[in-house]
Amino acid sequence: MRRLVAGVVLAVAAAIDLDTLPQWTHMCPLLTASTFTGRTVSEHRQPKVVPASEAMDLFELAPTCAARDLDTCAAPHSIAYGSILHHLEACSDDAAASALAHVVSDAGLSDARLHTCTVLQLDATRDGVNHHEVVSYVTPMQSTVYFRHKVNLGVNFHLSFDAGGHAHKAVVHLNTREHSFVVLQHTSTALSAAAVSRPPRILTYNVWNVNPPSQIYGAHRRWAMYSKRLDHLATFLRQADADIIGFQEVRIDATFGPRGGHAQIQHLMERLGKDAYPHYVYRGAMSYLNDRDPLEHIEEGPAIASRHPIVHTDYKLLSRQAHDPNDVHQRLCLHAVVDVPDWGLVDVYVTHLSLSERSREQTMLEIWAYMQEGRGVMQVLLGDLNAEPSSRGIQFLQGKASLGGETTDLIDAWLETHGDREPTDLDDMTFPSDAPIKRIDFVLYRGKGRTLTSEVIGQAPTADTAANPKNVGMLEPDSPIYASDHRGMPSKPDGIQRLEALQRSLVMFIPFRNISTKQSIGALGLCVFFAYGSHYLDTLEPVRKKDAKDVAWSSFDESKTAKP
C-alpha cells in the first residue's frame, strides 16, 4: 500500500509544471511534516576529478554574498566540503546573538563581546556545482500543496568574540529541522602570557563514528550501547593524558540521539571534560545525502582537542577520483596551530585517507606540501591513513622513498622508538581491534624534538564483555564491546619527561651570582645527576613493556635539533 501511495505521489509530482510551483529557499515551520516526492529538479554533472583546494579558514574568508530572502548563493564551482556548497554569507544581528548566547552558556562564560559572525549555509550539492533542488509536498487541512526547494541541511555560525580575558572563536551549528544549537568548535587565546608547560604529548584515534548500527542491538538499545562504547573509549583517552588529540570519523547524525545531541564532538568533549580540553575544533569532510530524505543531515570528519590554546585553524580539501568506487567520499586535512607554552607553536594535521591507493598517494603529496607551509617549531601528521608501512605512500611519508619526484623529512614516531622495526606483536597492530592484523594509524612529525615513547592502546574490550566470543567480529549482538574498531596512538607521561623538565628549570633558574663556590658546585652536580638519570631511563624505555597496552602514543623532548 505504501509503495502504491508513493507511486501515485511521484506520478502527480512528475506531471506538475515546475514553473508554477512556489520556490522555497529554506524550510519554514509547518504544522505538518513535509514529504519528499522523489522528484529532483536540479541537474547534476559529476566531474571525473575533484581537485584539491587551497587552505581555507572560514573565519577569515569574505562572504560569497549577502543574505537574501528568496535565494542562496555560493562561490562558483566551489564546495566548503563534501556535498556542501561554499555558501558563506553575512549574519543578521539577531541570529548572531542567538548563536553567541548558546556558546557562552555552553562554555560557562559571561560578558561576551561579539566581533564578527559569518554564516555557512549547509546547501547540498550532488556535483559540487549545482544546488540540489527537489519537489516536496505538505498536506494541511486536507489539501495537498506541492513546492520546490533547495536542500539545506542547517547553518553553521562562525563567531569571533572576547570574554573572560580571552579572544574566542567558535562554530555553532543550528539544526533547522528541530531548531537546536550545538557547538562544533571552541578555541580561545589568553590575552596574557601562558604558564610554563611540558613537551607535548600527542594522540591519534579513529573513533568509529556512531557505531554500532541499529540492526545490531535494535534501535531501542542503540543509544545505550553507543554510550557504553564511548565511555570505554573515554577511559583510554583519560589514561593517555595527551595534550593534543587528533580524532577521525567524528560524526554528526541528526537521525541518532536526543534533540540537540547529535554531534559526536560534543559526546567526546563531555567525557573528556571541557576544563581539561578547553580548545577543540571539528570540521566536516563529507555530508552523506539521502535520496529518500533529502533533508536528513549526516556528516563526518576529523577533529582536534587540545589542552593548550589553538591560535589558528584551517583545512584543505584533498583531491578525489570521482569515478573510483574506492574514492567516493570527500577527504580533507584539518590543520590547527597549537601554542604549547615553553615549547612553541605546533602545527597539527589530522586526516583520514581514501581506500583508493591511487588517490591516497596523490593526497599524501598534497598533505606534504601543506605541512611544509607550517611555521611552527614542529609539524605533526596524525591519522588513519588506510595504508600499511610496506606501501609506497607510507614509505614516502616515512622519508624512505620518493613519490612524484618529492621526498619528505618526516619521522615515524613508532619506528623511532622501536629501532626502525615494524611491529610483529598483534597487540601493537592498530586495526581491527578485535583481530588486529595491520598498522594503518600513524604519528609522523618533523622539526623540534624526538620521540621518547610510542605505544598502542585500546586493545581490551569492556570488562563485562571480555568473555564474549572473539571470533564473531564487532557487529554481532554477542561480540565484545571495544572502544573503537581502531586502536589509538597517543603520547603518555613518564619519569623521563618530568626529569627533563626539572633539569631545564634548574639550568634556567640557578642564580650564579651572589652564591658560594660550594653552592655552585653542588647545583651543577645536581644538574649532571638529572641529565645522566634521564639518559639512563631513556635507554630503558624502548624495551620496557606496558602491562595495560591501551593506546598508541608518542611523546617528544627537545634535545634533538630541528631537521633542515
From TrEMBL:
Annotated source species: Achlya hypogyna
GO biological process: GPI anchor biosynthetic process
Record's GO cellular component terms: endoplasmic reticulum; membrane
Pfam families in UniProt: Exo_endo_phos
A molecular function GO annotation: catalytic activity
Entry-linked PANTHER family: CALCOFLUOR WHITE HYPERSENSITIVE PROTEIN PRECURSOR (PTHR14859), ENDONUCLEASE_EXONUCLEASE_PHOSPHATASE DOMAIN-CONTAINING PROTEIN (PTHR14859:SF16)
Endonuclease/exonuclease/phosphatase domain mapped to chain residues: 203-486
UniProt-recorded name of the protein: Endonuclease/exonuclease/phosphatase domain-containing protein
Keywords: Signal
Organism superkingdom: Eukaryota
Cross-referenced InterPro entries: Endo/exonu/phosph_ase_sf, Endo/exonuclease/phosphatase, GPI-anchor_lipid_remodeler
Cleaved signal peptide residues: 1-15
Keyword Disulfide bond among record annotations: no
